[in-house]
Amino acid sequence: MNGKPPIFTNCADCSCKSSIFKSLGTDELGEINTGRFHVAYKAGEIMFKQGTPSSHFVCITSGLSKIYIEGYGKNLILALVKPVDYIFGPGVYIDNKHYYSASAIEDTTACLVDTAIFKKLIRSNPDFAESFIKRLSMQTLFNFEQVISLTQKQMHGRIADALFYLSEKIYCANPFNMTISRQDLADLSGMSKESAIRILKEFKEEGILSVDGNLFDILNIKHLKQISETG
Amino acid sequence: MNGKPPIFTNCADCSCKSSIFKSLGTDELGEINTGRFHVAYKAGEIMFKQGTPSSHFVCITSGLSKIYIEGYGKNLILALVKPVDYIFGPGVYIDNKHYYSASAIEDTTACLVDTAIFKKLIRSNPDFAESFIKRLSMQTLFNFEQVISLTQKQMHGRIADALFYLSEKIYCANPFNMTISRQDLADLSGMSKESAIRILKEFKEEGILSVDGNLFDILNIKHLKQISETG
DNA sequence: ATTCTTTATTGATATAGATCAATGATTACA
DNA sequence: TGTAATCATTGATCTATATCAATAAAGAAT
Fold it and tell me: Could you tell me the distance in Å between the CA of residue A178 and the C1' of nucleotide D25?
């Protein structure tokens, strides 16, 4: 958040592009660049809504956003998306609709690219196609972990999983600056906000976690891992 | 179950191959055929175990099988697989491991094909690759529906969803012959076997469902749809 | 600063659903 | 053809978790 991210005029020169683009040559990156535009979202703003047409691939270049399914009365956060990761929903290859919504948690910038270009490159470049399939597979594995956590673990285990997700996968730090709300934490763990808060409180009381303002510190990683394992 | 399924010696001539093979030419089907073998599983037999190396694509040619994650103390059935559908797990493109187990519910026959051939064809045939990606996308959408059903609906809604899944997607009939156990129904709906049985009983009492031996009949589809909707 | 609005926290209560335990009904099987 | 083994059913009890309600804290706005 200190200093603006560098905005390059060409994907080929971009130092912060998603690793999936590694398999693309200069010409292909040029194609991507042609149909690309850069957008800035303020924290809280919706990037796209579930049910609306899905015409663009979204690459997050700064900030933090969430993708979430608007279910029966409450939301389920499928993932948080940070630089330099992209959002490319399953509807693109089915009916060009969004099957989840996305919104900015922190101020976020993103590059949008027409999905048609993306699909064309998948057809013409087998390496790119394979990278894409690998990425889809990774997401599926992540979904599996999440559904097992949500359906077979109790609240303590689910909050433990969410804290590790935040620390290891999103903020990539241990004392980390928590930028998502308690409601988001709850939506990530499939429980009510109040329950999430209570679990955090217990973790604090047991010395597993310290919370100082927005600074979260997992003090006893081993114990928290165990809570994650034992449900 | 009456009469054996026709077993052809060549994929090109096979009348019961998965629709994904439509985009393959005779030569390509020949390649598939070369590395293919046909296996029969008895009801209850495990086809492959979560955690073991995943070397083959599995196409179900007769019978019914389930794919399920062995979680913390209980199983979650991700899907039932019937002819002519295939099993190709997300581990194939990641680390060649199975991330779920599969077992035969009814006596089941299947064609196995080395995943290397499959991956090669995905690289060489863009239509095939696209069909494959579409199929992955469909599975992802199905996962989304399932996770929302499991995490945001109460038991009645989840059993309703499972009954519609069985009737509409698996047995493709309304009075249908139930070949999965109550435990499987429970594992499909993320609840205990006892709870699943109790919900069935309530549905019977309310005239929504009739159960005569193994014959299930959804008597009031509209009402059951409503139960599915209202959680 | 002061008010307004959102977000976080805590407590009390209600309940969906699991678990345990017992029994009945099928199916395998020797 | 009876005995074991599995599967289905029902009831009683317990608990994890949601919901409701009230308050506190933290930002945002004027």
Answer: 17
User: For strand A46-48 and strand A75-81, is the pairing parallel, antiparallel, or unpaired?
Assistant: unpaired
What is the CA A9 to C1' C24 distance in angstroms? 75
Four-CA torsion A114, A116, A119, A123, nearest 10 degrees: -140
- The DSSP letter of residue A86 is E
> How many CA atoms does the CB half-sphere of B39 hold within 13 Å?
19
Closest-CA residue in chain B for A90? B137
Spans of chain B, pLDDT less than 70: 1-8, 231
Interface test with chain A among B54, B93, B96, B189, by most A beta carbons within 10 Å: B93
What's the CATH number of domain A11-125, 2.60.120.10, 3.40.640.10, 3.40.50.300, 3.30.1370.10?
Answer: 2.60.120.10
Architecture of domain B11-128: Sandwich (2.60)
Nucleotides of C under 7 A from a protein CB: 7-12, 16-21
A51 touches chain B (CB under 8 A): no
**B107 phi and psi angles, rounded to 5 deg:** -55, 130
Residue type (1 letter), B211: V
Whole-prediction pTM: 0.94
Contact yes or no for B136 and A134 at CB 8 A: no
Which 3-state string (H, E, C) describes B213-225?
Answer: CCEEEECCHHHHH
What pLDDT does residue B173 have?
Answer: 96
Gap from B195 CA to C15 C1', Å: 15
Question: Concatenated DSSP letters for B86-148?
Answer: EE--GGGGTTSB-SSEEEESS-EEEEEEEHHHHHHHHHH-HHHHHHHHHHHHHHHHHHHHHHH
The second-level CATH assignment, the architecture, of A153-229 is Orthogonal Bundle (1.10)
Q: Report how far residue B122's alpha carbon sits from residue B133's, in angstroms, rounded to the nearest whole number.
A: 10
What are B181-211's pLDDT values in tens digits?
Answer: 999 999 999 999 999 999 999 999 999 999 9
Backbone angles phi, psi at A191, to 5 degrees: -145, 180
For residue A6 the two structure tokens come to 């560098």
What is the identity of the amino acid at A134?
A: K
CA closest to C1' of D25 belongs to A213
Q: What pLDDT digit, counting tens, does each position of A171-194 carry?
A: 999 999 999 999 999 999 999 999
Cβ-Cβ contacts under 8 Å, A154 against chain B:
none
Residue extents of the structural domains in chain A: 11-125, 153-229
